[in-house]
Specification:
single chain; about 450 residues; Creatine Amidinohydrolase; alpha+beta; binds glycine; binds manganese (II) ion
Length: about 450
């Protein structure tokens, strides 16, 4: 399938120009200076164009002839002793089907033969490598990144199939955790159940550091310690996903560790869920991410007003950025080979410098084939709310007693993965999220 990705990239460059693309694939990474090897993960653009999941490879794409040169490492017998099998050139050729196969140390020779007017690179480091090979090469680092971003933003059917599979397994893993979690269990026990289901289904690579946070830990946006013990009465926030052939799933669910929401938990949870449902219903081509973000923020403020956590006119609450005190991150982001995938900000579009929306990772009109996350949340972060309670401009919109009583509550986030389609959207996430359905699942 990766040849379709190369064709998509070729179509973006002028056929007459004598240019080449150069990309160095990922190397094996080690923990500091030890021989502890991190699991190998190919660089996403290299993977997108080649499907080669091996260290120390490189590619050259001849833009004029539309030919693919793959460079592989020449391993010696010692390598076989420590790492196993050494592939022959024929085996590499058979497996990856490049138009031309070479060893890594032939890069200069091949580039000299192709004698390109421009070598398009991904970044300064790889451009310097090319310049160091031959000072005569003219390198460029913007056009390739733009072209690959353009290609990766709209998923092909094959890419969507990988994402559906990542989501199918993520559904199973979430439901296993929710069914088996009990008060007193540690956060890492949830991670263990989750990981076991992923691996049993053939998914071996997590897409990002999972967040398994009980109680107040749920209000820490990038909580990764995952080592606290849950208590009866806690809410538990779980934000995790694995990759299928490089394509990520990225969900969040929040559930009561004892299987039953308290009235307060149910109120806050429902405010987030109503916002998420409203936004998802609105997804279709032409809608802008920043408008969805503000729609979610407003819906959550309406929910918090009903609960008497915030007070006053909703328009003013929005204008004065009070929503940012409770919802300090973006509504969602593009999803694909990277969890925070490329393409959220097209050229010339900048972040909105306003509290509560400046962390939004995507600001553009949605198009069919884009995959996004929708992940509203309400958090009670002491470091944000305590100063707000002392700030006369902000505290007039807060019910101080209610807000104080909720410090320590933690937070609620609900995150689904959505494909934009011609006539609306497809939700790839099917883990239960209505209160009654979570309670029924956990009571099983
Ligand atoms: N887990 C990262 C995110 O939801 O964006
Ligand atoms: Mn997430
Ligand atoms: Mn996300």
């Amino acid at each position: 399938m990766h040849h379709l990705h190369r064709e998509k990239l070729f179509s973006l460059f002028d056929d007459d120009q004598n240019g080449v693309v150069f990309i160095q694939g990922a190397e094996t990474m080690y923990r500091y200076k030890t021989d502890y090897e991190f699991p190998f993960r190919q660089e996403s653009n290299f993977w997108y164009l080649t499907g080669v999941n091996e260290a120390d490879c490189a590619l050259v794409l001849d833009l004029k002839k539309e030919e693919y040169h793959l460079f592989v490492p020449e391993r010696d017998a010692q390598y076989a002793v420590w790492h196993g099998f050494v592939k022959t050139k024929e085996q590499y050729q058979e497996e990856y089907q490049p138009d031309h196969l070479h060893y890594q140390n032939d890069i200069l020779h091949i580039l000299n033969e192709l004698s390109p007017e421009t070598v398009y690179c991904l970044n300064d480091e790889q451009a310097e490598y090319i310049e160091d090979l031959n000072r005569g090469f003219n390198v460029e680092t913007e056009a390739l990144v733009d072209a690959l971003t353009y290609c990766r933003v709209i998923k092909t059917d094959w890419e969507l199939e990988q994402m559906r599979e990542a989501c199918r397994v993520n559904d199973l893993a979430y439901e296993a955790v929710m069914k088996n979690f009990k008060p007193g269990m540690y956060e890492y026990e949830a991670k263990a159940i989750f990981t076991k289901v992923q691996m049993e289904n053939g998914l071996l690579q997590d897409a990002y550091n999972g967040i398994f946070g009980t109680g107040n830990n749920a209000s820490v946006l990038h909580y990764v310690e995952n080592n606290s013990q849950s208590k009866d009465g806690d809410l538990f926030l779980m934000d995790a996903g694995f990759e299928c052939n490089g394509y990520a799933a990225d969900y969040t669910r929040t559930f009561p560790v004892n299987g039953t929401f308290t009235e307060t938990q149910a109120g806050i949870y429902q405010a987030v869920l109503d916002a998420q449902n409203k936004v998802i219903d609105a997804i279709k081509p032409g809608v802008k991410m920043e408008d969805l973000h503000m729609m979610a923020a407003r819906a959550m403020m309406e929910g918090l007003k009903k609960l008497d956590v915030v007070r006053g006119d909703i328009d003013e609450i929005m204008e004065k950025d009070i929503f940012a005190l409770f919802f300090p991150h973006g509504l969602g982001h593009f999803l694909g080979l990277d969890t925070h995938d490329v393409g959220g900000y097209p050229k010339g579009v900048d972040r909105i410098d306003r509290p509560g929306i400046k962390f939004l990772r995507a600001r553009r009109e949605l198009l069919p084939g884009m995959v996004i996350t929708i992940e509203p949340g309400i958090y009670f972060v002491p470091a944000v709310l305590e100063p707000a309670l002392d700030n006369a401009e902000q505290n007039k919109y807060l019910n101080p007693d209610k807000v104080r009583s909720l410090i320590g509550f933690g937070g609620v986030r609900i995150e689904d993965n959505i494909v934009v389609t011609e006539d609306g959207h497809e939700n790839l996430t099917s883990v239960v999220k209505e209160i009654k359905d979570i309670e029924a699942l956990m009571a099983d």
